[in-house]
Amino acid sequence: MKAAVLYEKEDLRIESDFEEPAMGEADVLISPKHTGLCSTDRSLYRGYVPFKPPLILGHEIAGVVSEVGASVTDLAVGDHVIIPPVYPGCENESCGPCSEGLTNRCKRSVFIGHGVHGGNAELIAAPAKYVFRVDKSVPLDEVCIVPDAVSTPFHALKSRSVPPHILMKHIGVFKNTGMFKNKGDSGGHPEGHHWLNDKNVVVFGAGGVGGPAINLAAKYFQAKNVVAVDIFDKKLEYAKQLGATHLINTNTYFEENGIAIKELDGRERGKALSGLAKHISSHLAEDKFQVDVVVDCSGVSVTFPVAVETVSKNRTVIQVGWPPRPAPDFLNQKIMDKYLTINGTWACPMSEMEEIVTAVESKTVDLNLLVTNKDYKLDQFVEAIHDLEAGKITGRATIEII
Ligand SMILES: [Zn+2]
Ligand SMILES: [Zn+2]
């Protein structure tokens, strides 16, 4: 079969007769039609992330079922489907994390396009129970970004944004302990509404993952204000289209205030970053809790201290973009003093995938805006990676496989 295969760093070849995948009786065989291009593909291609060659890249896959295993009953040939990039590999979701519901954290997680072959190929096999059918009205060249670019920020906003004291109050864990007095309200968490509804969200980085985070926060979770923070005006304009209510260019802020941030260190740098954080949070100053969540999708580590400064007391910072290096300062005192919740997040559990598919089918997510570059063919995969590095892709790019 045809496939884009990485043999070593920066050696990616378009093969025409690569071995086809084998499938078991509980699997389906899928013909990928489009894949989304993720910066993880770029990291693998450049050798920043170790991998075992040869490897077919591509972990954001939308395709058509071409064959079903003997025991598969709920999928049929011709169905349009997506596959989550990370799904459980343990027996019957029996490992520790899976049995706690964290199927995105399975001890034997299968990571498509990294640990096993990905979707930049004519065929891929996957367990039918982790393959999700999508209505044919949703274009495959858009829905392919859902598995990672949409589902990762979705999980972050839905499940990682709520501070524990709100969750506990809502579910009544400490109801009788006197620690959290029940004042008769539901902690802003009435049935049918997510906690984020009417809250204020700040998103750092308005790109391939930050864009969906902004769009989901504004349209799906119906946050009151969504502040987009980036260093490029082009990305901020894009964020506005996606639903951001406030736009902040940090470079412009430093320029206008005569701050040469790269030349500062120590106390001076800390002061400058605090000033930036105040600037960001002052946009929401009329509210009691000005900044309820900061979602860091920037993929750089210098934003972390700013995120900690920006978020209001008793609220949450979520690290979504992978920072290649640790943050320069770890603000232990501030995290403690502000009673913050600092959350990591990772992919998306299987239990939230159906909700995401429903959101996409009902057009609550603006996939047509989130995908900004659709013209790449499989043969142009390396060119697409170069364009991603050169900043030519504002949102997400998708690759046509066949
Ligand atoms: Zn990815
Ligand atoms: Zn497991």
Described by strand count, sense and barrel closure, the largest sheet is: 7 strands, mixed
The general outline is globular
Identify the bound ligands.
Answer: zinc ion
Secondary-structure arrangement, i.e. CATH architecture of the largest domain: Alpha-Beta Complex
Instruction: Give the overall pLDDT as a whole number.
Output: 92
Q: What's the Cα radius of gyration? A: 22 Å
Count helical runs.
14
Question: What is the CATH superfamily label of the largest domain?
Answer: Medium-chain alcohol dehydrogenases, catalytic domain
CATH topology of the largest domain: Quinone Oxidoreductase, Chain A, domain 1
Helix content: 25-40%
Commentary on this structure:
- The protein folds into two domains: 198 residues, Medium-chain alcohol dehydrogenases, catalytic domain (Quinone Oxidoreductase, Chain A, domain 1, Alpha-Beta Complex), CATH 3.90.180; 149 residues, Rossmann fold (3-Layer(aba) Sandwich).
- Helix content is 30%, strand content 21%.
- The protein has 14 helices and 18 strands.
- Strands 3, 5, 6, 9, 10, 17 and 18 form a seven-stranded mixed beta sheet that branches.
- The chain is globular and about 60 Å long.
- One zinc ion (ZN) binds next to loops.
Feature tags:
alpha/beta, Quinone Oxidoreductase, Chain A, domain 1, Rossmann fold, 2 domains, 6-stranded parallel sheet, 14 helices, binds zinc ion
